[in-house]
Structure formats: structure tokens, C-alpha cells
Amino acid sequence: MAEAEVSSRESRWSLKGMTALVTGGTRGIGFAIVEELAGFGAAVHTCSRTETKLDECIKEWERKGFRVTGSVCDVSCQTQRDELIEKVSSTFQGKLNILVNNAATVVSKDSTEVTAEDMANTLGTNVEASYNLCQLAHPLLKASGNGSIVFISSVAAVVAFAYTYHLWSI
């Protein structure tokens, strides 16, 4: 990006002083969201189920000068969600401006092959976890005086695919 474009963008939009939590921020769209928020000046905390990947990404963001911290967290686990929000509260002094519910899972197999466990894991990760994170983050969002919640979804919600589910997790 040209230097004039960067300064023009910065003069129009800044997230300096803002804080954000992005779930599933070490791959795909979550990674891009972390980079955009941090690029606009926000302090960002993200999570991943994989410590190695989280550490790699944090080092990359540090090299770029971004203020990004992270936690290992499987959002499908209630106790890990509780710990994540405690860490975010501690990191951001009890305030959060932006919660991005991005972490998700899908199962790739014929609908007739999807098990009750597959369905429970999908709903637990994609629906229950996001809803619960909103509940847990509510006091932090309210304390910021300027809280926003963003839900990331898939085009699969409106477009049919050959397989109903795809076993893949962020």
C-alpha cells in the first residue's frame, strides 16, 4: 500500500485506544480481522486451540508492530471461555470495545453420516460458545461505554454445498 494511501486511511479511521477480542484469530478471516483491527490501532487479544500456531502469529504481529496478545482456548469448553474473558479483562483493565465471534467448526460428511456428537460439537462451538461469550463479555463491553459485537458467519448459511457438514475447525 502506498504511503499516501496509508496516511489517508489513518486520517479517516482510527481505532487507537480501542480494545478487541477476536476468537479463532490465527487462521483465515480471523487472522485478517486481527490484522485489520491492529492495523487501525486497536489493542487486540485473540485465541486459538493451538499454542504453537498462536505463538507463531503473535511473533509475526509483533514484527509488524501490532499490539496483539493471545490465549490458548477451545471456545467449545465453558471453563476455557471463562478463563479467556478473565484474561481479556485483566489485559484490558476491565474494558472491551469489540468482541468478534469468529471461531467456528463444520463437519464434512454426508448428512446421513453426521452423528449426534458431530451436531453437539457444531452447535456447541458455533452457537452456544458465541452466545455465552457475549454474556461473559457484556460487563466489559458495557464498562467501555462503546461496545460492539460482531458475528462472523459462512456463505454456507445461504448457499448449498455438496456436503452439509465439513470436519474443519478454526
TrEMBL record:
Q: Name one GO molecular function term.
A: oxidoreductase activity
Supply the InterPro entries for this chain: NAD(P)-bd_dom_sf, SDR_fam, TR
The keyword Amino-acid biosynthesis is assigned to this record: no
Statement: the UniProt record of this protein carries the keyword Transmembrane:
yes
Membrane-crossing residues? 149-168
Q: Which residues form a coiled coil?
A: none
* UniProt similarity note: Belongs to the short-chain dehydrogenases/reductases (SDR) family. SDR65C subfamily.
Q: What name does the UniProt record give this protein?
A: TROPINONE REDUCTASE
Q: Which organism is it from?
A: Salix koriyanagi
Q: What is the lineage of its organism?
A: Eukaryota, Viridiplantae, Streptophyta, Embryophyta, Tracheophyta
